[in-house]
Design goal:
This protein is an alpha/beta fold and 409 residues long. The protein has 10 helices and 16 strands. The chain is globular, with a radius of gyration of 21 Å.
């Protein structure tokens, strides 16, 4: 590869307290949490719509907030955003979680995710209606928002980020900030700042939305997943197809095109078998549905051995979306790298390994780690401290005031 060196005059925008790069569920939560702590916040999103994989990616399943045995583990913005996702649209929330009674009646609790009466505290939602509600949330909270703008590179002074370069229809711009939350999903800012990062590997999987010809009923019938390729364990991954990191434009393009080809091939096979088309594709994802691309190698790392273990430096209690009864406490150090004084991670790119990485990448956990990052950014400003020196007691206390549960009893 050859390179060119360029020199440009880049316009510098007004500085902000906290800049959040990425408007997925983690970035939205980080922006809201920091704003509620009194910080001036700017949220940058590379697409035209907020919500990330939950909306643009059509993964419109809000994973459980409970342990599958009737105990709610996750509160705060994780619960607030679940309620927002279904406030103006349909849902599949089990009846025990719709009802006001808390704790829920144990004799009706079932470990199933989608049982209509006693299932887990989880739901399908309308991704399009949720996108509109997220717009309203940003307006109501007073968060500055820029859409269709890509955060490309951090501006560094030593290991401190002084701003973020972005590209959009306007051209290249620099947004100065005192604190930066990387919620890109791929640790782009950490990686380009020189922080230690780890690459992931992804099976080929693709989810669209379909509508069955002549189907009637509510949301669960009208908006259904049309999944092709691999499941979580790789079953269905095409033979001989490489695992992809998902951190280059070439791999993103390949993943999208090959996923869409699988879908079209399947539609044609169904039509040939049935003699006519049997379903309609109602929506295609607007972004690649990678699960684990690149994460930070943080000051602390969450792993499988931490399941069911108390963490004194916890910034949030989370449940395992697949394994009933299992839970983790997210360590504060998994949200930052030592030596990078004003850069925080949120979402699927926090420091986690093996199955714990999968646990941290789903919607409610992204919301929780985003909330923790936003609160920490605001506290660092208030204390004039580097992120690693934010008083843990103050951080945990502020999170508890925002309804985050830190520990399992």
């Amino acid at each position: 590869m050859t390179y060119v060196k360029e020199t440009r005059r880049v316009p510098v925008r007004e500085p902000v307290d906290v800049l959040v790069a990425g408007g997925g569920m983690a970035g939205v939560a980080a922006a809201v949490a920091a704003r509620r702590m009194g910080a001036q916040v700017l949220l940058l999103e590379k697409t035209a719509l907020l919500g990330g994989l939950a909306t643009n990616g059509l993964i419109n399943w809000y994973e459980p907030l409970c342990d599958g045995r009737g105990e709610q583990l996750m509160f705060g913005l994780a619960e607030e955003l679940l309620r927002l996702s279904i406030r103006d649209g349909g849902d599949t929330l089990p009846r025990i979680w719709h009802e006001a009674a808390r704790p829920v009646p144990q004799d009706r609790v079932l470990p199933e995710k989608q049982h209509p009466d006693g299932g887990r505290y989880a739901t399908f939602f309308s991704p399009t209606v949720f996108q509109l509600a997220l717009d309203e949330l940003m307006r109501r909270e007073g968060i500055a928002l820029r859409l269709d703008i890509l955060a490309t590179w951090p501006r560094m002074e030593g290991k401190r980020v002084t701003g973020v370069y972005c590209e959009s229809k306007t051209g290249r711009e620099l947004f100065p900030a005192q604190m930066v939350v990387d919620a890109t999903g791929d640790a782009d800012l950490f990686f380009r700042a020189g922080a230690p990062c780890v690459q992931g590997r992804n099976y080929l999987s693709f989810v669209a939305h379909r509508g069955d010809m002549g189907a009637q009923g509510g949301l669960a019938r009208q908006r259904r997943w049309f999944a092709r390729g691999a499941d979580l364990q790789g079953v269905g991954h095409p033979a001989g197809y490489p695992l992809l990191n998902g951190t280059t434009n070439e791999e993103v393009t390949r993943f999208l095109l090959d996923g869409r080809k699988m879908l079209l091939d399947d539609l044609r096979e169904r039509a040939a078998r049935d003699g006519q088309p049997s379903c309609d594709v109602t929506a295609l994802p607007a972004q690649a549905q990678f699960r684990t691309t690149r994460r930070i190698d943080g000051a602390a790392t969450l792993g499988g051995a931490d399941q069911g273990m108390r963490c004194e430096a916890s910034v949030g209690l989370v449940c395992d979306f697949e394994r009933v009864g299992e839970w983790y406490e997210i360590p504060w150090g998994s949200l930052y790298c030592n030596g990078y004084p004003n850069l925080l991670a949120a979402g699927r790119m926090i420091s986690a390994v093996d199955w714990a990485w999968d646990v941290t990448r789903v919607i409610p956990v992204c919301a929780l780690t985003g909330q923790a990052a936003g609160v920490a950014a605001a506290l660092a400003l208030q204390n004039g401290a580097d992120v690693a020196r934010v008083p843990l007691a103050a951080l945990q206390g502020a999170l508890q005031k925002q309804a985050v549960r830190l520990h399992r009893a």
